[in-house]
Amino acid sequence: MYKPLPKSLTIKTSGINGLGLFANRRIKPGTNLGVTHLEVDGKIIRTPLGGFINHSDAPNCIKLRQFVSLRLSIKKKWTLMPKQNIKKGDELTLKYTFYNV
């Protein structure tokens, strides 16, 4: 069954911008938290998980790019992974690389 967020994350008001992703519990580095973006027909689409993560110049997470070999038009996907220990209550952040800011 598809779940837009893993049980370890919730959406709350962010001090960075609007709403953000926050840890409900401790999360170890390298934990795959799910798919944030998909490339479909040459366009990058955000998933619900990717739609709520805020930018930081000193992020605590990374996007891991994976190539997908399916018959569908999806060629790549990106998953969210912490690059350091995330404590309960911490906001998860990424350095935006897809968008011109």
Q: Short description, anyone?
A:
The protein has 101 residues and is mostly beta strands.
Tell me about this structure.
The protein is mainly beta. It has a single domain (9-94), classed as Beta-clip-like. 4% of the residues lie in helices and 42% in strands. It is built from one helix and eight strands, in the order ββββαββββ. The strands form two sheets. A four-stranded mixed β-sheet has the order 1-2-8-5, with no helix packed on it. A four-stranded antiparallel β-sheet has the order 4-3-7-6. Strand 6 and strand 7 form a beta hairpin. It is globular, with a radius of gyration of 13 Å. The chain starts with 8 loop residues before the first strand and ends in a 7-residue tail after the last strand.
Q: Give me the CATH architecture, please.
A: Beta Complex
CATH topology: Beta-clip-like
Distance between the termini: 35 Å
Q: What is the CA-atom radius of gyration, in angstroms?
A: 13 Å
Mean pLDDT, all residues? 87
Q: Describe the biggest sheet?
A: 4 strands, mixed
State the secondary-structure class.
mainly beta
Portion in strands:
35-45%
Helix proportion: under 10%
| Strands ordered across the widest β-sheet | 1-2-8-5
- Secondary-structure element sequence? EEEEHEEEE
The CATH superfamily turns out to be SET domain
Characterize the overall form.
Answer: globular
- The number of domains: 1
- The low-confidence parts are none
